[in-house]
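The methods section describes the discrete structure representation at length, but only in general terms. Since the whole study asks how a given chain folds, the encoding of that fold should be made plain. An entry of this sort, consisting of the sequence and the corresponding backbone structure tokens, reads as follows:

. . .
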Amino acid sequence: MNLEIQAEVLRLHHAEGWRIGTIAAQLGVHHSAVRRVLTRSGVQAPVRRPMKVEPYLGLIRETLEKYPTLRATRLLEMVQQRGYTGQLSRLREVVAELRPRGNKEAYLRLSTLPGEQCRVDWADFGAYEVGRARRRLMAFVMVLSWSRAVFVGFFYDARMPSFLAGHVAAFAYFGGVARVALYDNLKSAVLERVDRTIRFHPTLLQLASHYRYEPRPVAPARGNQKGRVERVIRYLRERFFAGRSFTSLADLNAQALEFCCGVALRREWPEDKRRTVADAFDEERPRLLPLAAEPFPCSEQVLARVGKTPYVRFDRNDYSVPHVHVGKELVVVADVDCVRVTAGTVVVATHARCYSAGEVVEDAAHVQALVAEKAAARGHHGLGRLQRAVPSSADYLRALAERGEPLARAVRQLGELLDEYGAAALQRAFADAEQRGVFHVPALRHALQRTGIALSVGAAALPDRLRSVVVQPHDLGTYDALLAAKEDDDAEDT
């Protein structure tokens, strides 16, 4: 409760004569807080009914003196075993008043030289729906300790690839690297810590070696060592993120970069109110270590096996690859914006990264190549060969399907009739069957045996290269017309 509300509590009690419950209800504070303010100001506490917890105050006080950090829920179990029937909320109030308070530790105000130090931390900005996935929106924050210049980059996770990408982007934004980077015991930075013995993450050590800076974890429970980055995170929540809308992660990062280059640099510099952070940053920038010749590689690499379909799975989504890689093991190289699939040193597929779940990300060229190959294969298939030789076979097969006939066997038998009697005879047999409404392959065979003429060479004797050749029959009506015209001419001559 701030001083303004405390003053209002005293005024309403003394000047207006309001009761504790009325003051608490109108000011939106708890009645126990109002009672504490009045008690500290010398107002005698009003006579109240005895509390259910009063018989247990001695036990609670003695227990807290011996175990100062014991939780109220455990104390509730202890007093309930002894007959307490009150609520946990009231017990919490009593425990808060009786719990021993240690002396607060005083901290020295830390000062750094320009270009000497930066501070790094993650900030959680809640969960968001991305397509069919729900992801945590995390902000990577780096602040230069002397000038207070800040960089923020948003990611959908806080894993090592995003951690590295945040460093690379921050160093590029600042145009240099501070000599020391402080980390708040992040798992991406510190794997293990026992007293003063620290085991850093090996990937972080590679990053630090690449940019020539020293990684340093802050001491546990040292508020003066991480206060600057925490204040910056609070500043970002209030001045940048509150009420902001964005359409994608790229859009949010573009807005964040604009904020860092504009509003964040125009704020007052805490060390000298007459200057801005931009003025201090202009002075600090030349003191930073120069950037490395090449940015540190921060892409994530995982092995992925292509199954029967030409796709690799990464981060709950499927990405297409050329169908020639079916059954092979490839490497997925992913960064914030792009997913590349490599076979050895060759990039076989490149896609924009998808942060949804259960999506199929395809390259049209991959799909078209597979369709073209399948179409070529179908050209040698029995059904494809039959339909190309005798187009009306499609209607005949459809009629068989409606009658419930097995189509695979029918296609095989019709292919044998095509080889034995030829396309023209089979075409006439189809037409006759349709006219009579008889759709039965044995009946069709019987009709061909009565009216058709078998080919002189048996189908079994034909070589494979000839069996696959289809001769399209032509309409003989033109020849009939010519013959009829000749007969008319002969009749006129006679």
